[in-house]
Design brief:
The protein is built from four helices and 19 strands. It is mostly beta strands. A hairpin with a 6-residue loop joins strand 18 and strand 19.
């Protein structure tokens, strides 16, 4: 027998259930605050997006090319603030269209090139925040953490399954021109999930069980740019497949970054960053390695040109180099993603880029030359192309191409992408 009920939008019922469960109000409290709580729930923000991507990979290290046609559907809801509390939830579903034409590091399609976009449904975010302390917001749960340019801590938003973090973040802005972010992370939900992948691959564990303490201080009062100082203490525990691997990811990193620009009609751009990394907690190695990035550029009449050098050093002949396992790695060292793990002899990336707009589309070309930090190895070079345009207020189209020419590292690889993002 069906019971007739007054219909309400499903997302509002979902948001009401989440808020009631998390806030834990008694019936009496709900009666007293019914209107305000109702407004917080029903007047929240609903986000929905669909991202289709076709990725073609021709890697000389695999006999067959990859043809990955995937779609990601994302739905999220964030309540309005009620009594200094706010709740957010976000769900992702990734589906492959067509046959098994690529290696997602989960199945047995090992003759095809790799595209790390496995199928699955996952809670991408689920958090509650509290802002009842002056100039401070505390967020608990599964959440995005993107710091600075995401070179050390990021969400890997390029992949269909985003990297998010389980933990607590505290953001404080009580000091003038200063933002202080502290986070304690107990688990990293990696791009290879939601289920663990094939043994012996980077996807063997979809999660990293961690005890990470993250501190980032951002200051904008210098007048010449933004200064960031940071301390990232990463302790990775209990990797179910490879305990040695998890211990080797345990590092402590301290650094500072300055980025800014000068000028009006012609802007001169600059970035300088330095960090030092060493072993931490149960890491079996004893090492010290430096990171630095120097970049200069100019922006004039709609054209932006940059020249830079990024170095992840190796510690002499120990075969250990500076690592950034929680970074949004696709943003750095070439779109072909040949250096997702730093080679044991380190890496020096000399790069140049130029971007402009043509018929309303953002067009760019980037060149990389890769060499070893220790020894004389010439890893190879890469050229990347990108075209992006907002063709409608709800539709964004992206074309990308990467061509890595190997010398002393890896194999020749060409990648091409077509992506369409629809946001509502």
């Amino acid at each position: 027998m069906k019971i007739a009920v007054k219909k309400r939008p499903k997302y509002k019922l979902l948001a009401a259930a989440i808020s009631t469960a998390v806030f834990g109000f008694s019936g009496h409290a709900l009666a007293e605050e019914q209107v305000t709580l109702k407004d917080a729930i029903t007047d929240g923000k609903l986000d929905f997006s669909v991202r289709y991507r076709f990725e073609n990979v021709d890697d000389d290290g695999r006999p067959e090319e990859a043809h990955a046609s995937t779609v990601r559907a994302r739905i999220g809801y964030t309540t309005k603030t009620f009594s200094d509390f706010q709740v957010g939830i976000e769900l992702d579903h990734v589906e492959a269209l067509g046959g098994d034409n690529y290696d997602d590091l989960h199945g047995d399609t090992t003759d095809h090139a790799v595209v790390a976009d496995p199928e699955g449904t996952e809670v991408n975010q689920a958090w509650i925040s509290y802002s009842g302390i002056d100039d401070t917001t505390i967020k608990v749960g599964r959440q995005r953490i993107n710091l600075d340019n995401q070179r050390f801590i990021g969400g890997v938003g390029w992949r269909q399954n985003e990297q998010t973090y389980d933990g607590v973040t505290v953001v404080n802005t009580s000091l003038e021109d200063t933002t202080i972010v502290y986070a304690h992370v107990s688990n990293v939900n990696r791009i290879f999930g939601p289920n663990s992948g094939r043994a012996g691959t980077p996807a063997a564990d979809a999660n990293l069980d961690a005890d990470a303490n993250i501190l980032n201080v951002n200051y904008k009062g210098l007048g010449i740019g933004t200064l960031s100082a940071y301390a990232y203490l990463l302790d990775v525990d209990d990797h179910p497949v490879n305990h040695t691997l998890s211990d080797a990811l345990s590092t402590k990193t301290f650094g500072a970054r300055l980025t800014g620009s000068q000028g009006e009609e012609t802007k001169f751009l600059y970035t300088a960053e330095f960090a030092r990394q060493s072993d931490y907690k149960n890491n079996p190695a004893s090492f010290d390695a430096n990171y630095y990035n120097l970049e200069g550029g100019v922006k004039f009449k709609g054209i932006t040109a940059k020249l830079g050098l990024e170095v992840l050093e190796a510690d002499d002949d120990k075969g250990i180099a500076f690592s950034t396992p929680l970074a949004t790695l696709h943003k750095f060292q070439g779109f072909a993603d040949k250096f997702l793990s730093t080679p044991g002899t380190g890496i020096e990336d000399t790069y140049a880029s130029i971007f402009t707009k043509i018929f309303g589309a953002k067009v760019g070309i980037i060149y990389h030359d890769f060499e070893a930090d220790e020894g004389s190895a010439d890893y190879g070079d890469e050229i990347d192309l990108v075209i992006a345009k907002q063709v409608h207020k709800n539709v964004h189209v992206l074309l990308k191409y990467a061509n890595y020419n190997a010398d002393d590292f890896g194999t020749d690889t060409q990648k091409a992408w077509l992506q369409v993002l629809m946001k509502f």
